[in-house]
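step 3/5: co-fold with manganese (II) ion
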Amino acid sequence: MAIPFIPLPYPYDGLEPQLEAEILILHHNKHLKKYVDSVNSILEKYPEFEDYTLEELILLNLTLPEEIQEAVWNNAGGVYNHNFYFGIMGKCDKKQPEGNLLKAMEEAFGSFEEFKKAFSMKAAGVFGSGYTWLVTDEAGKLSIINTPNQDTVLPLPFTPILLIDVWEHAYYLQYKNVRADYIKNWFDIICWDVVEKKYMF
Ligand code: MN
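step 4/5: write tokens
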């Protein structure tokens, strides 16, 4: 049972003009595909772990043979993070969350606009390659955290709600070095209906 290469839930030009097709083709069909192929080619040589899910490959990483731990961590993390990121985007009607997620944002940050500001600043501040997450703890309290490289939040006591990829490959072809513009426009291609379902309070 190999780790699947999940198709985008929209066409490659489906997020234009905020994200050009050229970026999405490279990002999904080259970068993500490489992570998927790498995990699967490692596991081919270790069939005893072939039934591990993506989450297990990350959470049980230290139980894997030492010689493949780092490669599995990075590549399985790359698959998990990209599946999450591509999965919460889309051209959807709703411009901001509603219901309990909106309430939780207002509690944690003051308002949706203040949340956007805080999230954008955190994402602008990722040094090098990594991600910015909106996460919830077990009580439903939201916070914003950064992770480097292809680390995930799975080992942390949080459930991920929202994720932006700020590796340069996510925006450089279109936005060059102006990450702030990518982050600003990215808020217009979030599918809040999908994101709300991840906040189960
Ligand atoms: Mn990426």
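step 5/5: annotate
Residues 27, 31, 82, 165, 167, 169-170 surround manganese (II) ion (CB under 6 Å).
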